[in-house]
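Check my protein:
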Amino acid sequence: MEIKGKKVGVAFTGSFCTFEKIFVELEHLVEAGAEVFPIFSDASQTISSRFGTPEEYYAKAERITGKKPICSIGQAEPIGPKGYLDVLVIFPCTGNTAAKLANGITDTPVLMAAKAHLRNNKPLVVSISTNDALGMNMKNIGLLLNAKNIYFVPFGQDNPVKKTNSLIAHTDLLIPTLEKALDGEQIQPILKAW
């Protein structure tokens, strides 16, 4: 199914090193004709890093999408009853967010958005980015891989020598992943070398 004309939620979590690539794909989504709704986790709203500040991220997301980001659990909750998103992507999805999602914890705007969206039996896409994926977080990723209506952007080891447990999604495959998810399919191959 084409992404053009679809309402896409893009939920940012705290893997700040990926944000530059994330914003490029955000622009591609808008260029492809999607209506994009940005959602910010608590970490994305409060932590400054060497990659930028929350104010910069917020302004950039609003400039690209033309929409103010959803920044509270209260703002995210209506995604469920109003059912206005066609697809939601957690982009990037940290190990912390993956663990909470896999265990039903809803304590941030991103997790509330995911819970609210999933109640409508619509696709949730995970774009993993964590240094702990092949360690303690593998069990959570395994649970999510087997969950109904959850799909993954293909991922691989970004630095198997220095960061042996790290996995990161191939963000350039976001749009094809979303289009497959809208058809109820997982894009393949899901494991892709860097």
In short: Residues 125 and 151 are 5 Å apart (CA to CA). The two ends are 27 Å apart (CA to CA).
